[in-house]
Amino acid sequence: MQEVTTADILAADPDVQIIDVRESGELATGMIEDAVHIPSGEILERSGELDKSRRIIAVCHGGGRSGRVAAALTELGYNADTLIGGMSGWEAEDLPMVAPGA
């Protein structure tokens, strides 16, 4: 597991899977485009929804939960990383966000 920056995400292979592990109530501020919402508490039972052949970048509000999720997914055999600073950092850099489900 690695910690990646916002620049890493913007430059990432288009095949990367971005998963937003925040709780539903935290999504009102927006999500990274094409991110899939899987709350951190559901990640183990929903890990089968992820493609093991594709890199995963987990995102939360500040980076703590997504780090734990990326570590857990790595133990399950996924290539999973975490976004440093989470969506707080993404928003602080005024990067594009979309409404949940958009």
From TrEMBL:
Sequence ranges assigned to domain Rhodanese in this UniProt record: 12-99
Signal peptide span: none
Domain of life: Bacteria
SUPFAM superfamilies from the UniProt entry: Rhodanese/Cell cycle control phosphatase
Entry-linked SMART domains: RHOD
Name this polypeptide is given: Rhodanese-related sulfurtransferase
Organism: Arthrobacter stackebrandtii
